[in-house]
Amino acid sequence: MNESAKRARDIITGYSGRPLRIMEVCGTHTHEIFRLGLRKLLPPQINLISGPGCPVCVTAVGFIDEAIWLALEKGCIICTFGDLIRVPGTEMSLAGARAKGAEIRPVYSPLDAVALAKEHPEKQVVFLAVGFETTTPSACLAAKQAKDAGLANFSLLTANKTMPNAYQALVGSADAFLYPGHVNAITGNATCIRLCEEQGVSGVVAGFTASELLTALAVTIRLLEEGKPFFRNCYPRVVRDEGNPAALRMMEEVMEACDSEWRGLGMIPGSGMKLRAEYADFDARIKFDMPVITGKPNPACRCGDVLQGKIRPCDCKVFGKGCTPLHPVGACMVSDEGACAAYYQYS
Ligand code: SF4
Question: Do 44 and 154 have their domain in common?
Answer without folding.
Answer: no
